[in-house]
Structures
1.
Amino acid sequence: GVSGKGPTLQDAFAQIGLGVLALTVDPGSVEERETRAVRAHGVDPVDLLVNWLNECLYVLDVEGFVARRIEFIAFVPHPAALGGEPMRLHCLLHGQEAEPGRHDAAPTLGAFSTKGAAIIESSQGVEARAVTRG
C-alpha cells in the first residue's frame, strides 16, 4: 500500500500521487519537459482517490509518461449539490516521456481498489491510503 499525508485533503492526494509515481521511477531522474492532464470523478473521497490514482497509472503505463510534480487545477472533494455532480479533480502531471536506460521503471503496479483504501482525518491533518489489486 501507499499513503500520503498533508494538512488538507488536496495535500494528502498530492503526496500519495507522488508516492505512487516514485514507486515506478526515481523522480530525481525526471525532467519537467511536458505535462499530461488527468481528470477523475468519484462518489466519495475514497472513490475519487482510487479513480484518480488509476488514471495516473494509465498515463504511466499506456502513454509512457513519467512525472515529477503534480499540480491541481480543480479539486472538488464534495458533491456540488444533492444529486448533483460527483466529486471531481483535474490535475497536471509535470514530467517527460520515459527514456529507456534512464527511466527503467519498476514492475508495473496493479490497479488500485477501494478495498483497503481510506481517508483518515485527524487534528494533525489528513492521510490518504490506497492498496493495489495486483
Note: Strands lie at 2-6, 34-42, 65-76, 87-97, 112-122, 125-132.
2.
Amino acid sequence: MTTLYILGGIIVVVVIGLAVLKALFEGDSEQEKAKYQYKRRNFFLTRAEHECYDALVSAVGAEYFVFAQVHLPTLVDNKVTGQNWRGAFRHISEKSVDFVLCDKAYISAKLAIELDDKTHERPERQERDREVERILQGAGVPLLRLENRGSFNPSELTQKIKDALKAESGAKA
C-alpha cells in the first residue's frame, strides 16, 4: 500500500512539473502573449533608395515594374526536394533586396538590385551580401549591385540593367 502512495505521489509531481513547463514555454492562453506596439513609418524608403527608385522607374518603367524592399521568400522558393524547407525558409525570411524588376506580362522577377551604401562595408553586412548573392545565383535570379554615389542617372541605369540582363542570358546559353 505504501508503494502505491509513493507511486501516486511521483505521478502527481511529474504531472504538475509537466504542466508548469508547458505553461512556461507555451503560455496558458492568448491573453498572456506579448502585445507588441507598433507605429507607422513616415517613409517607406530612405532618401537614397527613393532617388534610386525614381531613376529606375524613369529608366525602365515603360518595360518593367519596379518593386522596392522585396523579401527573398517572394523571389525564391525554399521548398526544394531533399532539404528541410522550414529551415531553408528561416534562413531567407529576414533577408531582402532593395529593388526587383519584373516583366509586365507575368510579373516575373527579371533582375534584383541592391543599392550599396556605407553599411555594405561592414564585415557582417559583406557576409550577408555574399549569402544573398549565392541564394539568388542558385535560384537563377540575376543581381545588380549599384553603388550609392548620391545621384542616379537613368540612362546609365538603363545601360547597367541591359548589361546585367544580357550577362544573365549569356550565362544561360
Note: The radius of gyration is 25 Å.
3.
Amino acid sequence: MFRKVRLRFLISFIKCILIKIRYGNRAMINPLRLYISPGAKIKITNGGRIYIKGNSDRVFLSKNTVLHCSGGELTIGNGVFFNENNHVICHKKLTIGDDCLFGQNVCFYDSDHEFRDNNKKIRDQGYTKAEVSISKDVWIGAGSVVTKGTSIGTHTVIGANSVVRGNLDSYSIYAGNPVRYLRKVNEK
C-alpha cells in the first residue's frame, strides 16, 4: 500500500515536470503541490495561461479531470479538490479561490458558442465570453454546470445538478436549474 501511494505521487510529479517543459511560463504550477491523477489532463492552447497556486495545500485533479485554457487565463487557488470527470474550459478568465471542493462531473465555462449568423456554421462563429469568479471555500455538488459571467461568493454551497449563472451571495445555499437561492448556510 505505502509503495503504491509513493509511486502515484512520483508519477504525478513527473507529469507536472513534463507540463512545465511543454508549456513553459504559460503553466505556472508547483509539481510538489499539484496531484494529477491518471487520466487527468492539462491543455493550454492559443496563448492561454494556467496558474495553479498550490503554495500551502495540495491541489488535486482526480481521474478524467480536464483543465483546458484556450487563449484565456485560468487561476486556481490552494487546496482545491476536483473530483472525477470535472471539466474547466477557459477562453477569457476563470478564477477559483482557495479550498474549493467540486463533486463529480462538474463543468466550468467562461464562454458560449456564438450562433446568430444563419449564413455560417455555429462552429465557425466563435464565442461570447464573460469572466467566471469562484471565491474561496465553495462547494459545488455533482453534475453542476457553471456558466459564463458567474460570480460565486465565499463559503457558498451549490446543490447537485445545478445550472449556475449570475452573482451568488456569500455564505448561502443555492440549487436548481436555473440555480436559485435557498437559504443562508447557518439557517436550518
Note: The chain has a mean pLDDT of 94.
4.
Amino acid sequence: MDNFEELRDGYIKEHNYNFVSYENNECIIEAPITETSLNPYKIAHGGFTFGLMDTCSGLHIMLETKKQALTTSSNINYLKPGTGTKIIAKSTPIKIGKKISIMRVEAYNDKDELIATGIFNY
C-alpha cells in the first residue's frame, strides 16, 4: 500500500505500525508489541494501543476520501491488557462526511481477543 509507506515516518515508523488491508469498508493495521511499547507492568502501554487505533481510523478516512484527516476527539475503552506479540486495529466508518467523520475502531491481540474499543472523530 503505497500511501501508508509515504506516511510511515516519525511516530508511525518508530512504533512499527504496518498496513494489513483496506477492503469491504474495513481498514486493518497492526504493530508488534516490543520493549519500547510496554508500560512498567510489561503490557502494551495504553497510548501505544490508542495511537494504533487512531492511526488506523485516520488512514481509513484518507483512503476513503483522498483527504487528510485530523483527530478532533476520541473515546477509548480498554477491555483487556495488551499482551502477546502484536496488536491489530480494525476500523469501520459510522459516518464519513465532507467535514466531519466518525469511526468505530476495535483493537485485538494476537489471539483475536478484543482488548479495546473506541470512537474517533475527525
Note: The chain has three helices and six strands.
